[in-house]
Amino acid sequence: MGKTVSPDKQVREGAREKRVAIISAARELFARQGVDSVSMDAVAARAGVSKRTVYDYFGDKNRLFLAILSETSDTLNASVRRALDRHLPEDGTITTVLALEEAITALVVELGRTLVGSADYAAAFALVTQRRWREPGSQDDIVTVSAEGALAHRIAHFANAGLLDTDDPRTAAGHLAALTILLAYNDQPDPATADPERIRQIMTSGARAFIRAYATR
């Protein structure tokens, strides 16, 4: 006999699906046409919901814009944390510099595939650029403090384990990101035409350069 789903749960799940659909539609339209050029009617039509629903969920276009950045921040930070748990565990299984290099390489290759090759992330970053061009001094951004802190924490762990040589894990984390994620974004800015093999090469060489700079001798 099938399990009964309560009406309240059905409503909650339906509300979540609508919210995701609205954010996805707005992100795509805003990035392609510009926030000012997109009406809430257009967002509603693309999301397959009523205009009233869009306003009920987000209030106005600016709040919808900020919700896109918040959603992107949450998913990006969660993706990085999951990748760190998979590839750079703090359980004592990584005991040599060679093993650490292999683990960091696997980490950044996954992040390259997840982040650099994502049309959703590219659209969100494009929205930040649009906002800053239109409103110089705008502080609206995709917040990556959680991911940066988590990466710095792992680097500190392996420094304490004697595999990395740094007394500034945050700067080291920034260097790793610059050698991999940021370089790949600059080299492959359009997810629609991004070359997965090229991204993998950039990530691999970046991880190698990081180890050469920071590994203990």
Write the layout of secondary structure elements.
Elements: H1 7-33, H2 40-47, H3 51-58, H4 61-87, H5 97-116, H6 119-134, H7 145-160, H8 169-187, H9 196-214
Helix pairs in contact: 1-2, 1-4, 1-6, 2-3, 4-5, 4-6, 4-7, 5-8, 5-9, 7-8, 8-9
Characterize the structure shown.
- The chain has 217 residues and is mainly α.
- Helix content is 74%, strand content 0%.
- It has helices spanning 7-33, 40-47, 51-58, 61-87, 97-116, 119-134, 145-160, 169-187, 196-214.
- It is elongated, with a radius of gyration of 20 Å.
- Residues 1-13 have low confidence and may be disordered.
Detail the poorly predicted runs.
1-13
Count of strand segments? 0
Radius of gyration: 20 Å
The chain-level mean pLDDT equals 91
- Global outline: elongated
Major sheet summary line? none
Classify the oligomer: single chain
Can you describe this structure in just a few lines?
With 217 residues, the protein is mainly α. The protein has nine helices and no strands.
Features of the shown structure:
217 residues, 0% strand, mainly alpha, single chain, disordered N terminus, elongated
